[in-house]
Amino acid sequence: MSHSVRLQDLKGKLIVSCQALPGEALYGSDTMSKMAIAAQKGGAAAIRANSPDDIRAVCRAVDIPVIGLWKQSYPDSDVYITPTYADVEQVAKAGASIVALDATLRHRPRGESLSEIVLRARERLSCMLMADVSTVEEGIYAHKLGFDIISSTLSGYTPYSAQSAEPDFALVSELARQVPIPVFAEGRIRTEEQTVRLLQHGAYAIVIGGAITRPELITRHFVEAINSVAL
Ligand SMILES: CC(=O)N[C@H](C=O)[C@@H](O)[C@H](O)[C@H](O)COP(=O)(O)O
């Protein structure tokens, strides 16, 4: 079931991304649902989840809205977050009240364009659309196309965007200044201090994945810290 969402309910709130890919220890819809329940208990206002199976399971497990995406790879494109219209439709039908998709200007699979996908989604689906971008230019274009939300998700993951181990504070603040729709901060947020700073930079909501739901990553960060100390 899709839980309806009003954007103002997400304002100033935390969204937890519960994702594990094949090969990761926590991979599987059952585990992701439990992660989502834990996140809801901790106060998350929404969950971000990957794949129709996980989205269906998470929607059953929690009663907060689900932002859905589907990581898919196609041979003719580098775009992998909900790349095609068919993927958008599957994510929406699985119960996501917001569908997140790559909104970079890169070539998409099957020769589809971002504007066609948005147009078709508006005609046929009732979900909101979240633009995962990597630059200010992409965010401005996404706003022109009629997206409901912009997220800094892909900063550092396209070859031409800023590369940093930190969240992209500059992108979030520039987007918040230049586009009149909610800008979510997402990507490499690891600390409470960064979270507060991003809100002060104009982030409408904060999306955190790995620092909450990827124990391998969390463990590795501690191990690296320990290894950096010469004993
Ligand atoms: C770049 C990409 O594919 N990002 C994905 C988008 O859904 C996820 O792998 C991230 O976990 C999510 O964006 C949250 O970010 P972080 O895990 O850094 O808090």
The computed structural class is alpha/beta
CATH architecture name = Alpha-Beta Barrel
Bound molecules: N-acetylmannosamine-6-phosphate
* Amino- and carboxy-terminal Cα gap: 54 Å
**Strand order within the widest beta sheet:** 1-2-3-4-5-6-7-8
pLDDT averaged over residues: 97
Number of strands: 8
* Biggest pleated-sheet summary: 8 strands, parallel, barrel
The name CATH uses for the topology is: TIM Barrel
Number of domains: 1
Provide a count of the helices.
9
- Low-pLDDT regions: none
Helix and strand succession?
A: EHEHEHEHEHEHEHEHH
Strand content: 15-25%
CATH homologous superfamily title: Aldolase class I
Radius of gyration, whole Å: 17 Å
Overall 3D form:
globular
Give the % helix.
25-40%
Function: Converts N-acetylmannosamine-6-phosphate (ManNAc-6-P) to N-acetylglucosamine-6-phosphate (GlcNAc-6-P).
GO cellular component, one term: cytosol
GO molecular function: N-acylglucosamine-6-phosphate 2-epimerase activity
InterPro entries: Aldolase_TIM, NanE, RibuloseP-bd_barrel
Topology:
Elements: E1 14-18, H1 29-42, E2 46-50, H2 52-61, E3 66-69, H3 85-93, E4 98-102, H4 114-124, E5 128-132, H5 136-145, E6 149-151, H6 169-178, E7 183-186, H7 192-200, E8 205-208, H8 210-213, H9 215-227
Parallel strand pairs: 1-2, 1-8, 2-3, 3-4, 4-5, 5-6, 6-7, 7-8
Helix pairs in contact: 1-2
This protein binds N-acetylmannosamine-6-phosphate.
In short:
The protein has a single domain, classed as TIM Barrel, CATH 3.20.20. Helix content is 39%, strand content 15%. It has nine helices and eight strands.
